Each structure stands twice: as C-alpha cells, then as structure tokens.
Amino acid sequence: MTSATLRRPHGVITRGTTGINRLRRSDRWLVHDALVRRTLHASADPLVVDLGYGARPHTTFELADRLTAVRGDRRVVGLEIDPERVVESRNGVSFARGGFELSGLRPVLVRAFNVLRQYPEDAVGPAWARMQSGLAPGGLILDGTCDELGRRCAWVLLDAIRPLSLTLAWDPFAVEKPSDIAERLPKALIHRNVPGEPVHALLAAADRAWATAAPHGSFGPRVRWRAALELLRAQGLPVQPQRRRIRDNILTVPWDLVAPGSGTN
Tens of pLDDT along 105-163? Predict the structure, then answer.
C-alpha cells in the first residue's frame, strides 16, 4: 500500500449542516465525565480531533474552548473530508482534510458528531474500527447524533477495543419524555428501537420511571428526572449517577445493556 493510499480520506462527503452551540450538551458531558477527564489528564500529548465538523467550524472552536477547562494545553484539529470545507487555522485550532483514518493523526480523543448518521448501518462497525486503530494509547471516541438545535442528543463512547457506554441528553424544558430521544439515537442503534431489542426496553423503562416521578414535576423537569433516575437504579438498571447538578437531563448506561441483539425476544 502506498503512502498516498494511506493518506486518502476514508469516508464520503455528507451534508455538513452545523450550527453555533449545537453540540453544547455533549461538550458539557465531555468536560465533566470522569473517564474523559482522566484520559486527557494522563495524556502526554492531549491531541483532540473533531471529525466531520461540517460547513462551518463553529462547534470545533467551541469544543476547544470548553476542553481548556480540563487541559489548558490541549491541541484540537478539525478534520473534514470535503476539501472545500477545510479552513485556515486560527484561535489555536488547526484544520485539515481527513476521514475515519484521522489523517494519520494519533489523537487521545475523537469527536465524530452527526457523521455516521448519514451512513448505512453496516458502515458503523468498519468506521469505528478505522478510528479505533488510529487512537493514541488509552484514547477515546465519541460517536454522536443530535437535532438541528442540539436539544436532543445521543452518543456512544468507545475506547480502542469496544463501545463503553450510551448517553442520552436533552433539554429538560423541550422534551416531553425520554423516549422522544429515539429519533436521534446513534446509527448503531436507531434501527434497533423495536420490541425485543434492549435499547427499546431501556427507553420504555425510562418512560415508566418518568411517569412515576410525575409528582416531582412541580419542582421542575430536572428534579423530576433525578427522581426518575433513582427509580431506574432501584430497579437494578446500571444507570450512571449524576454527581453534580447539571442543566441537562442525562441518561448514561453501559453499552452492554443496549448492544444490538443482546436482549431477549
């Protein structure tokens, strides 16, 4: 294989829609997640790749700004497969052409948001594997999806070997019930929200807990969701606890709980 072949971007050009502050929920989660923080702190070279930032690099700059709270010396590179979207480096952020091969970089963190959503389902595994092979030791990948305004979001966190967790995050004041996030599930799961699949069971359980927690609604949707999370934990679901008061309603579970085909029909 020639060096030119190795450098050829892996993937296809997608729509490239973007928007200011669209990825704020995932950014807030990244800044506060214990594993992500440990990974960035432990890295000798905190290189972060924002893969597929779209027609405008707004969200890449926002990611760089927010990660400064974790590592002031972080390096952020935005990669786009469409050469016409590659912009000049500025504000301490670099840009280059690249796809799932990560342009030969060895990042400790990759964010690929609203990229795989536009691919067929059977492309997810190979794309994950390609990105995983390019990670620095101990590196992580965030593969996520959100709506146009960033009010409904979902993402998978992966390491170099396997998916680790699924997170759903939403605006407490703009979403009626947890299962409304189903339309923004990552590509690996969006076609699996059917009876008999574990992600469908999780969403149904979250809706039931949300309904049961309705008496807490007079204190606001955030308080109601914290009560719903406690109900889910009491039922034995391995829901990641929220260790601080946050703006978003968030549900994080181990990937094994929702992995396609791991449920019973």
Answer: 999 999 999 999 889 999 999 999 999 999 999 999 999 999 999 999 999 999 999 99
Domain encompassing residue 26? 3-173+239-255
Contact 54, 63 (CB under 8 A): no
Amino acid at position 170, single letter: W
Q: Provide CB contacts within 8 A for 56, sequence distance 6+.
A: 18
> How many domains, the chain?
1
CATH number for the domain that contains residue 149: 3.40.50
pTM listed for this prediction? 0.93
Q: Are 241 and 233 in contact (CB under 8 A)?
A: yes
Which uninterrupted H or E stretch holds 101? Answer: none
Number of Cβ within 10 Å of residue 155's Cβ equals: 28
What interhelical angle do 221-234 and 198-212 show, nearest 10? 120
Cα(185)–Cα(101) distance, rounded to whole angstroms? Answer: 24
Beta-bridged to residue 146, according to DSSP, are: 153
DSSP three-state, residue 103: helix
Q: Alpha-carbon distance 186 to 160, whole Å?
A: 18
